[in-house]
Specification:
Length: 139
């Protein structure tokens, strides 16, 4: 396993797929992961958010294609929720008043000692300022 671990929240992958500001930084991370220079992980809860966003905006075929595209990326999807992940996610949900999905991204970043990749300053800046998790901001 690589020393550098990056945990994606939903907005990081949405920015990449929608070619939003920050997409180029996400692309670079994905290229580095494909070369096994870094490890990228994402909770299935956050993947659900990406899928939901695609389904809502583009319909079933677009959302299904997106899942296929994600399968082609060098991103490990964490599909099981260990007790440790449950505890970490609940900590952030209770103490930082974040969304359920954000609590899983934060919990996974804490558990993996990784950098949370995000664009969501509105929700996460206060956590960054407290130093509870390391962040890698796409923009």
């Amino acid at each position: 396993m690589n020393d550098e671990i990056y945990v994606l929240d939903a907005c990081a992958l949405i920015a990449f797929f929608n070619d939003e500001p920050g997409a180029e930084k996400m692309e670079t991370l994905l290229e580095r992961a494909a070369l096994h220079e870094v490890t990228i992980v994402m909770s299935v809860v956050n993947l659900y958010e990406v899928y939901y966003d695609s389904l809502r905006s583009g319909g079933q075929s677009t959302a299904s294609a997106l899942l296929s595209d994600v399968d082609e990326l060098s991103v490990e999807i964490v599909r099981q929720c260990s007790d440790e992940l449950l505890e970490q996610a609940a900590f952030f949900k209770v103490n930082e008043k974040v969304s359920l999905a954000d609590s899983f991204a934060l919990g996974l970043a804490k558990l993996k000692n990784g950098n949370l990749v995000s664009t969501d300053h509105h929700e996460l800046d206060s956590i960054d300022q407290k130093g509870l998790v390391e962040f890698y901001w796409l923009r």
